[in-house]
Amino acid sequence: MNFAVPLFLFWSVIIPFGRQLPALAYIHHYDFVVKETNVTKLCVEKSILTVNDSFPGPEIRVRKGDTAYVNVHNQGHYGITLHWHGVKQPSNPWSDGPEYITQCPIEPGANFTYQVIFTDEEGTLWWHAHSDWTRATVHGAIIILPKEGTTAPYPEPDGEEVIVLAAWYKGDLMTELIQDIVTGSDLPHSSGYTTNGELGDFSNCSSETIYRWSVDYGSTYLLRIVNAVVNAELFFAIANHTLTVVGMDGAYVKPIVTDYILISPGQTMNVLLTADQPLGRYYMAARQYSTEPIADTGFDHSNATAILEYNGDYNLSASPTFPHSLPLYLDMKAGKNFTHRIRSLANEDHPISVPTNISTRMFITISMNLLCKNITSCNSLDTDHMIATSMNNVSWKNPQVDVLEAYYRNLSGYYTSDFPDWPATMFNFTADYYDEDAVVTHTGTKVKVLNYNESVEIVFQGTGLLGGSVNHPMHMHGHSFYIVGIGYGNFDNETDPLSYNLVDPPEVNTFGVPKDGWLTIRFVAKNPGVWFWHCHLDRHMTWGMDTAFIVKDGGTEETSLRPPPPNMPQCTGVIGVSVQNPGDDGRDDALTNSS
Ligand SMILES: [Cu+2]
User: Span of the secretion signal (predicted)?
Assistant: First the structure.
């Protein structure tokens, strides 16, 4: 069964009915039924969690500035939440979605209506589950058209195509995840990558269902590409065809003409393609960009393929052409070359506003670590510890009542406001050698509190601790941010700022901190509420590479956190075992002085 089809079939169900408001903003309503659906891939039938029986899930299609109400009916076996990735949701974190950060899960049998408020986003974003790893199959594209009467900053394409790239797990992902977390093992690895739900010609039992896209010679198309993969950055290319990247993460970029892209989990890219090649069939292919030490973790070597096929008469028996421009798994140079070309459009119609008077500076190490399994016995690094991740050596632990609820109701004992602005110790972060003591981290539920309108600069510094330096795509909720600097080695606070781009830095919601390097971002904290930020490789998120901002109210109704909707899911006080590392190093002590 071709799972691209249900997406189309459900169009009639999810098509919004519009009610016009002043200022040409529309309200849309969707019903999302989350349930188990049987599918067969890689010659094996299994059950996956879907929305409306569709993998990928239904599209949300709005115009800039609209609002969508999405009623989520949970008919699955586990609690679930949904997140509207890249939608800023001003003053409305109640509908942002990350479990135990802004809400507790929607229990099986229950429903919750999210109010998704669009403001300045334009282009493509996506939605996904934000509980455990359910987002593996519970996700879909969000298409944000320009407001009526306005156009995108490129000629109107003749057509468009949504390409959702995802990971496929042969086994029962939830069962394996829980088992691995309990035993402290490495977390599940995927068995392949999918294009609009299909693995393609290079995977077993997948040729007949390969995803196909028909094009007319001479036409130009807008591709809306979403990386919904759980744990991998991907290279993507289309044989013999040039790609022109024009948008990223719901904002426009200066056109990048290229024969491949690199896209991180969480990122979206809008790409123009002109069908200008001889009539025939061409592979659209994706493969993992791995920066991990292979000896430690290995990676998924599969190639995801779909077929671009021209309409018209030609020899159909010939094999499609494969894109030789698709870089190989470990091609760091190709990764770097593409990433360094991304610039915001930054013109009169699409201006940017990079903060220059910084009021809050943070320097944050992001690391692989070890965590004590049980505080009463922590002698051996090998047997008494499990893998963890951290930011400034704090490995995030979810609270039993979500941070937003605790903040809004002034409940103590659930989080502390002491997320550090600096690492506790300075060391040679990117050295190959590392001190075994430095590798041990501790858990905490520490947040960073920001005043409204504060201008924030964060330098993320990757570390080589545990020999585990990798690219970390960091994602922030509730805000987009500017990438003003990127570099390799240890950050130098005297010379590196001289290279900052304050003219046309990309404005994004997810961006990779390079392996053995650093990344500087800037943003203005103008969205009151609680906002999660974390690595968008779920293995790192699960291990603790997360924290949250609390942005305080700004003094007016418009600049203040709204009250919660009446039907927020209640916290049962029973935290899912699968949520995070079960390691405990005295976290409860740390919480006796809650904010
Ligand atoms: Cu990471």
Answer: 1-20
Dist. CA 509 → ligand 1 center (Å): 15
**Is the Cα dihedral 96, 101, 103, 104 positive or negative?**
positive
Per-state percent for the chain, helix, strand, coil, to nearest 5: 10, 40, 50
Distance CA 79, CA 429 (A): 39
Tell me, yes or no, if the pTM score tops 0.70. Answer: yes
Instruction: Tell me the torsion sign for CA atoms 205, 208, 209, 214.
Output: positive
Confidence of residue 21 (pLDDT cuts 50, 70, 90): very low
Write out pLDDT tens, residues 457-493.
Answer: 999 999 999 887 899 999 999 999 999 999 999 999 9
Cα 206 to averaged position of ligand 1 atoms, centre (Å): 30
Determine the distance separating the centroid of ligand 1 and the alpha carbon of 191, expressed in angstroms.
Answer: 20
CA of 569 to the centre of ligand 1 (A): 29
7's enclosing H/E stretch is helix 4-9
Report the alpha-carbon angle 510-515-521, nearest 5: 40
Say how many Å lie between the CA of residue 61 and the centre of ligand 1: 30
Ligand 1 centre distance from Cα of residue 369 (Å): 12
Per-residue CA distances from 434 to 60, 354, 438, 469 (Å): 47, 36, 7, 12
Q: How far apart are CA 478 and CA 338, in angstroms?
A: 26
Q: Which helix (H) or strand (E) holds 198?
A: none
- Domain 154-344 in CATH 2.60.40.420? The answer is yes
Instruction: Give me ligand 1 centre to Cα 232, in Å.
Output: 10
Ligand 1 centroid–CA 403 distance in Å is: 22
CA of 239 to the centre of ligand 1 (A): 30
- 98 C-alpha to center of ligand 1: Å? 17
Question: Residue 107: which pLDDT band, with cuts at 50, 70 and 90?
Answer: very high
Taking CA 254 as the corner, what is the angle to CA 249 and CA 259, rounded to the nearest 5 degrees?
85
Instruction: Tell me the CA–centroid distance for residue 472 and ligand 1, in Å.
Output: 4
| Ligand 1 centroid – CA 172 distance (Å) | 23
Q: Which CATH class is domain 1-146?
A: mainly beta
Residue 472: strand pairing partners: 513
